[in-house]
């Protein structure tokens, strides 16, 4: 399933989407980040886990997003116990070097655990089903008191890179004052685990059908940034999480362009180099 190479997306000018006052100057250098699209199968079909970010946050405040965040330098720790596709394979998928690829995968696993309580780890033969023993470690990770590699080593756990799939590559528009170079991953909720809202970054969370989330956005009940909206639009075509994970994707780096147009911001999608 290929996203259109060019697409104009009109959204209301609102908090959470900003344009620099000096937009004609050099763009802010984007920070590396990882986002995880967490899926599960429900009675009515495929559902995705969404978070409503706390208003007032420096980036995407008040918007509905997938779990994720910036890469921690310690996410590149090569000592992390690893199972699944190698960092070099991930580097090929996301067009980056092996060190950054390792950091992105580790960042994806860490952020997912911090923000949702879902732990994509276990042994080489099994995935953690009960995360209760790791509640204090989750808090320590969020406070940056420990690293992911340190936590996994102390708990005798292995990072399960095989539970993730590459999904997309988005870079925050050049016009914005805070920018991220974000690789999107997709994963299925492990059996026995549940996702929660025990994070300081969101004031509401929940599972929802992709089509329902889009309907909420159209009717003004939630705010979606273009990458989230388009991802949900793609996911609504799948009946199950396994089908979504099995879909082969071309990972194209996309840097949207923001163009003010009265009360709207026109978001022009055109895969390009930043």
Automatic annotation (TrEMBL):
The keyword Cell inner membrane does not apply. InterPro entries: NUDIX_hydrolase-like_dom_sf, NUDIX_hydrolase_dom, NUDT19. Its cofactor is Mn(2+); Mg(2+). Keywords: Hydrolase, Magnesium, Manganese, Metal-binding. SUPFAM superfamilies: Nudix. GO terms for molecular function: hydrolase activity, acting on acid anhydrides, in phosphorus-containing anhydrides; metal ion binding. Residues 30-230 form the Nudix hydrolase domain. It comes from the Bacteria. This is NUDIX hydrolase. It comes from Amycolatopsis panacis.
């Amino acid at each position: 399933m290929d996203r259109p190479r060019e697409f104009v997306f009109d959204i209301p000018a609102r908090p959470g989407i900003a344009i620099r006052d000096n937009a004609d100057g050099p763009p802010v250098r984007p920070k590396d980040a990882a986002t995880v699209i967490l899926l599960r199968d429900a009675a009515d079909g495929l559902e995705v886990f969404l978070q409503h970010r706390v208003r007032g946050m420096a980036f995407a405040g008040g918007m509905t997003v997938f779990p994720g965040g910036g890469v921690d330098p310690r996410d590149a720790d090569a000592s992390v116990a690893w199972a699944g596709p190698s960092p070099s394979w991930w580097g090929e998928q996301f067009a980056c070097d092996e060190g950054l690829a390792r950091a992105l995968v580790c960042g994806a696993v860490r952020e997912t655990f911090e923000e949702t309580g879902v732990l994509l780890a276990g042994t080489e033969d099994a995935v953690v089903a009960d995360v209760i023993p790791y509640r204090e470690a989750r808090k320590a990770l969020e406070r940056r008191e420990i690293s992911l590699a340190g936590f996994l080593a102390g708990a005798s756990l292995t990072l399960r890179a095989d539970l993730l799939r590459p999904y997309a590559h988005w870079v925050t528009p050049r016009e914005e004052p805070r920018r991220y170079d974000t690789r999107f991953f997709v994963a299925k909720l492990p059996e026995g685990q549940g996702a929660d809202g025990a994070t300081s970054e969101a004031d509401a969370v929940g599972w929802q059908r992709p089509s329902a989330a889009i309907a909420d956005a159209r009717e003004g009940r939630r705010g979606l940034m273009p990458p989230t909206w388009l991802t949900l639009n793609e996911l609504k075509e799948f009946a199950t999480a396994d089908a979504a994970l099995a879909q082969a994707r071309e990972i194209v780096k996309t840097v949207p362009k923001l163009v003010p147009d009265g009360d709207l911001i026109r978001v022009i999608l055109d895969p390009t180099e930043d």
